[in-house]
Amino acid sequence: MTAISDREKLSYIAAQAADARLNLELETEGMTLNLGPQHPATHGTLRIIAKLDGEQVISAEPVMGYMHRGYEKLAEVRTYPQVTALVNRIDWVGSFANEVPFILAAEKLMEVEAPPRAQWIRTALFEMSRVANISLFLGDMALQLGATTPAFFAFRDREHVLNQIEAVTGGRFHPNFDRIGGLKDDLPAGWITETKRAMRKMRQFCDEMEQLVLGNEIFAARSRGIGVIPADIGLSYGLSGANIRSSGVDWDTRRDNPCGLVHSELDWKVWTHPDGDSFARFWVRLQEVRESTKMIDQLLDGLPSGPIMAKVPRIIKVPAGEAYVETENPLGVMGYYVISKGDLVPYRVKIRSASFSNISIAPWLLKGVYVPDIITILASLYFILGDIDR
Amino acid sequence: MSDEAPAAEEAESEADPPESAEADTRYGALVEDSLGDTVLHTSVEAYLDTASAAHADGFALLVDVTAVDFLTYAGTRRLPHGVDPERFEIVTSLFNPQSRERVRIRVQVPVDEAAVASLFDLWPGSEILEREVFDLFGIEFIDHPDMSRVLMPEDWVGHPLRKDYSVSSIPVQFKSASNVR
């Protein structure tokens, strides 16, 4: 008589389960999680303040400025040739690429043009800094997702490129090699053969990464569909470079607004990916490294002969005016807005760095994701803190 | 290329023949060519309208918002007729990903009323760029969601990129520092 029928028992259990589920879905007490300022997912010091509900992010705000070195202010008291030594240190992993837009802006104001050989070598070094920079990213993002091996492969193979950059410029990280009107020096003997060998090794590295990381189930599970940026949202936040190309926007400054560099004379392809997720960002960057190594091969094959410096005065005075030049740097579009008053020093230099705009999407992108995905998303956005804070 | 709504300063030059380069307007702003780049000169009042018109015309990417302090700029500044120089200038770079076109909007901002409209509603990416300008120049952006410092510490005094801010030997001022040398 008092025994509960099976059916009633089952409905009781079901009601208990529903109650438990309901309680889970009620808002739990929030928690604020502080990531950084020192965190390996950031190249430098970035702090992320994330308000959590359970394991879900309600809101996240990046706090930057820990590495603000005031280059825009310093550039106002340095002569034009001295500024290149400063701007080297903005994105320190691909530092030669930082010098190029500044030099191009100064050349635009002075109305001088580097001789063809200098332009070709400049483009080759520009692309090599991309290979060095992005190959580090390829290892690093895998490291953030728990795979240690790709990071060691990346550090090992990046050395081939850095050695070649060092052979020309004398500096592995801070070349300070670009000059208004050309380059500091010509290439050393035997460099072309060695560089081609290095590029072959980098292509092997790309193949290796493709199998090791892109073919990895865990990597795909943790990055596919994570941190999806629709193209219009990405554009409205000013995203550039591989971040916007992996949302399907076919825009590359190297192809669309070539200025001063010789990308238009090469046979290459702009890679895009329709998905816009973390996986797509990794995939696009991997293809870009491979494309860059092919570009460098073409540049070395077609290298014209001739002088490497145009005729510029020994003491460089830049005529009054304003110029804005941007190039497709490893991290995205980097531009320099230079105002000159006809002096030895620039009146104002605004450094438009890619990472500063790229990080601005973080509050939008991190809203609603889970804590482990914060790391995936930040790693896949790929910013260098020196590039954010300048 | 909308020729409607010419800027108020240009009302008299409307009588000029249209082939005169000076009378060119676009999005209600004066058009100037600077080393091959298109530069639009607009006023603080018309800034948001110019930006909205450009946004509606396909300039989907806000490349940059920055400012210049012309306090110590000796000599005359080259500005088109009808634009009065002020101490600050807001420079906004826009890019149209479809037509691959870029324009630059320049606005003269007086120092005693250093405030312009925020572009946050058009491009949310302007949030961080405008905070940087506020941080380093002290120019306010009206209707900005969070007008706070972004690069300098929150309790920093002064705006470093102003030309009357000394470049050398400033004692580092952090809130926890007990004795500032």
What features would you describe in this structure?
The complex is a heterodimer of chains A (390) and B (181). Chain A is an alpha+beta fold. Chain A has one domain: Cytochrome-c3 Hydrogenase, chain B, CATH 1.10.645. Helix content of chain A is 50%, strand content 12%. Chain A has helices at 6-25, 71-75, 80-87, 95-110, 116-144, 149-169, 191-214, 217-223, 231-236, 242-245, 253-256, 278-301, 354-359, 362-366, 371-381, 385-389, and strands spanning 31-35, 47-53, 56-63, 178-179, 182-183, 321-329, 332-340, 348-352. Chain A has a three-stranded antiparallel β-sheet with strand order 1-2-3. In chain A, strands 6-7-8 form a three-stranded antiparallel β-sheet. In chain A, helix 5 packs antiparallel against helix 12, helix 6 packs antiparallel against helix 7 (191-214) and helix 7 (191-214) runs antiparallel to helix 12. Chain A is elongated and about 100 Å long. The mean pLDDT of chain A is 85. With 181 residues, chain B is of the alpha/beta class. Chain B has one domain: NADH:ubiquinone oxidoreductase Nqo5 subunit (Beta Polymerase, domain 2, 2-Layer Sandwich), CATH 3.30.460.80. In chain B, 12% of the residues lie in helices and 26% in strands. Chain B has a six-stranded mixed β-sheet. In chain B, a hairpin with a 2-residue loop joins strand 2 (29-34) and strand 3. The longest helix of chain B has 12 residues, at 126-137. The radius of gyration of chain B is 18 Å and the shape is globular. Residues 1-22 of chain B have low confidence and may be disordered. The A-B interface holds A 64-65, 68, 70, 72-74, 76-77, 108-109, 232, 235-240, 249, 251, 256-257, 320-324, 326, 333, 335, 337, 339, 341-342, 347-348, 350, 352, 356-357, 359-361, 364, 389-390 and B 34-35, 37, 60-64, 66, 68-69, 73-75, 78, 91, 93, 97, 100, 102, 104, 123-129, 132, 136, 149-153, 160-161, 167.
